[in-house]
């Protein structure tokens, strides 16, 4: 179903979550041609067309390969310089340090380079900073300790681009640093042997959407080529880089970078590698998390990723990287169980902070600013980014959440498409409102003095307001509409061919129209479970996660027998050996 530009999809101007529904734009003639040429359902053709895929691109989009899409590593500035120095270090037996970030992108970047360098015969020393004690990015004391343990050459991964003070101290001590990062850079760069970052301001790479783990993989590819040319593998087996694509896929999906171009190929091929369960750590984590089917991008982003992240958020920062680099299945199982436990702790802490943040937002008069800000004394720094994301999802506005501790605070922000929060945070730091800060369009982190809280709120809101062309109205893009009876396992499996889904290639969202609620109840941790029926009487299972206390959830629970338009994604539900279609509900509107 399509509507004219500007018209609300199904006439929904304001849904139960406060959003306006709109049809994702796409050329109907291209959609029809795609359906006919590729023998696909017309609905699937519309999904492809809405993502800008034409007849010429369709084959490559549906079957992305590294052979076609992986760029030459040397196209990135400083790559050749870094490769030459690392090749020398490997061949002369130097200890190489890796300083990683504590999130999934940092952990997978650390793991990829550790596994590659060790397979190439190098001695590797790694360090993941404690989020609370050390904070984000390289710090001088940690680099000094690494140097004292023999690492006069260090690679920073997923961090370092704005670490001026730490890298100045390292340079003064005679330590060489190679920065491998993807975060937004400033006009000047820190003193380093090399800064490999597709988002350097002087970089002309078209691959600015790479996650740090993607840049790390390119570094490994370049180094592998250099070592082969030097004859280093004449008497030892050359590492198989493809075996670590599962790690690249995990970091890429979890850092929410656009799954387009080379990222799409890295994730698509990485999911195939992950399906073979060749990494003991990821296999153990999948078992602990109850992932029995072949993993897809959903499992990476919402099942495995949060558990890897939990170590850096509320537990031991280095556990994620250790999990992915161990070859011992027994150790892998132990680490996986510990991470699963930390994830449960994280969920409890997150729920408490989220409840307080929501109370702040909803009891404060709406100032109309395009930024929500919540701050609390003693809030755990490890969950503020997740809570910011929850606020953004709930209210459709960029959100910043700050954990206050005395006179200072650590903050994390999440934005909506079209509003560059990272640039606003960098501008605030340059204006003297922040002690430290950085990020990218959709996410940012910062440190501030408590007495600058109000000024920071106003400054960032003004910066975001300047990017708006009109009123900030929460929108929900839909790919089409269907009856409850049309949702089938076969349709879902066909749609899966358009994956992997994520930022830049969103999972298709459909409206199940005029669906009557046969039954509604609460299951698990506040999830709303529904049984729906359509015009033909066929039933469809549906679930709205964490919705029981929301306006949408409470309305659905109280409306047995009523008809709604329900928006969401279609998933296969495997239960007791049977596979059925299920709608994961993200929004709803009363059918009129």
Automatic annotation (TrEMBL):
One of its GO terms (molecular function) is 5'-3' exonuclease activity. InterPro entries: DDH_dom, DHH_sf, DHHA1_dom, RecJ, RecJ_OB, SSDNA_exonuclease_RecJ. Residues 96-252 form the DDH domain. Pfam families: DHH, DHHA1, RecJ_OB. SUPFAM superfamilies: DHH phosphoesterases. Gene3D superfamilies: 3.10.310.30, 3.90.1640.30. Residues 372-465 form the DHHA1 domain. Keywords: Exonuclease, Hydrolase, Nuclease. Coiled coil: none annotated. Residues 478-587 form the RecJ OB domain. One of its GO terms (biological process) is DNA repair. Transmembrane segments: none annotated. Belongs to the RecJ family. This is Single-stranded-DNA-specific exonuclease RecJ. The lineage of its organism: Bacteria, Pseudomonadati, Pseudomonadota, Alphaproteobacteria, Rhodospirillales.
């Amino acid at each position: 179903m399509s509507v004219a530009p500007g018209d609300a999809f199904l006439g929904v101007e304001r849904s139960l979550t406060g959003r306006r529904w709109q049809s994702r734009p796409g050329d109907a003639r291209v959609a029809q041609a795609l359906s006919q040429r590729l023998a696909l359902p017309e609905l699937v053709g519309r999904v492809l067309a809405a993502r800008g895929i034409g007849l010429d691109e369709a084959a490559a989009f549906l079957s992305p390969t590294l052979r076609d899409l992986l760029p030459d590593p040397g196209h990135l500035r400083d790559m050749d310089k870094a490769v030459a120095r690392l090749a020398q270090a490997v061949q002369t037996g130097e200890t190489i340090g890796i300083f990683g970030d504590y999130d999934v992108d940092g952990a997978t970047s650390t793991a990829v380079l550790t596994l590659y360098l060790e397979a190439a015969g190098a001695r590797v020393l790694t360090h993941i900073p404690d989020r609370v004690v050390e904070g984000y990015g390289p710090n001088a004391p940690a680099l000094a300790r690494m140097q004292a343990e023999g690492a006069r050459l260090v690679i920073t991964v997923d961090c370092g681009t704005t670490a001026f003070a730490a890298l100045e101290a390292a340079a003064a001590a005679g330590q060489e640093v190679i920065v491998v990062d993807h975060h937004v850079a400033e006009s000047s760069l820190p003193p380093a042997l090399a800064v490999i970052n597709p988002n350097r301001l002087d970089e002309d790479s078209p691959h600015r959407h790479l996650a740090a783990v993607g840049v790390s993989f390119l570094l490994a590819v370049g180094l592998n080529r250099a070592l082969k040319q030097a004859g280093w593998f004449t008497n030892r087996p050359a590492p198989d880089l493809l075996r670590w694509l599962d790690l690249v896929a995990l970091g890429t999906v979890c850092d929410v970078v656009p799954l387009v171009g080379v990222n799409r190929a890295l994730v698509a091929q990485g999911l195939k590698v992950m399906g073979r369960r060749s990494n003991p750590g990821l296999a153990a984590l999948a078992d602990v998390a109850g992932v029995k089917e072949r993993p897809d991008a959903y499992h990476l982003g919402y099942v495995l990723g949060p558990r890897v992240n939990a170590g850096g958020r509320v537990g031991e920062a280095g556990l994620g990287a250790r999990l992915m680099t161990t070859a011992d299945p027994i150790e892998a199982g132990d680490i996986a169980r510990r991470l699963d436990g930390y994830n449960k702790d994280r969920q409890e802490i997150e729920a408490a902070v989220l409840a307080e943040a929501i109370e702040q937002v909803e009891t404060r008069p709406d100032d109309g600013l395009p930024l929500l800000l919540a701050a609390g004394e003693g809030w755990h720094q490890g969950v503020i980014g997740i809570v910011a994301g929850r606020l953004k999802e709930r209210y459709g506005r960029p959100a910043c959440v700050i954990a206050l501790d005395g006179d200072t605070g650590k903050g994390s922000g999440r934005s909506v498409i079209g509003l560059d929060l990272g640039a606003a945070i960098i501008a605030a730091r340059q204006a003297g409102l922040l002690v430290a800060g950085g990020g990218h369009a959709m996410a940012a982190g910062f440190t501030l003095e408590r007495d600058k809280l109000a000024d920071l709120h106003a400054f960032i809101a003004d910066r975001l307001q300047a990017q708006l062309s009109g009123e900030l109205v929460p929108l929900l893009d839909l790919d089409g509409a269907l009856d409850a009876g049309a949702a089938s396992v076969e349709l879902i499996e066909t749609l899966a061919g358009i994956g992997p889904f994520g930022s830049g290639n969103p999972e298709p969202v459909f409206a199940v129209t005029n669906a009557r609620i046969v039954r509604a109840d609460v299951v698990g941790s506040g999830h709303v479970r529904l049984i729906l029926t359509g015009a033909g009487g066929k039933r469809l299972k549906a679930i709205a996660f964490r919705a029981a206390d929301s306006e949408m959830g409470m309305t659905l629970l109280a409306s047995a027998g009523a008809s709604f338009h329900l928006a969401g994604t279609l998933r296969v539900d495997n239960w007791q050996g049977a596979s059925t279609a299920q709608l994961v509900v993200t929004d709803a509107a009363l059918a009129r």
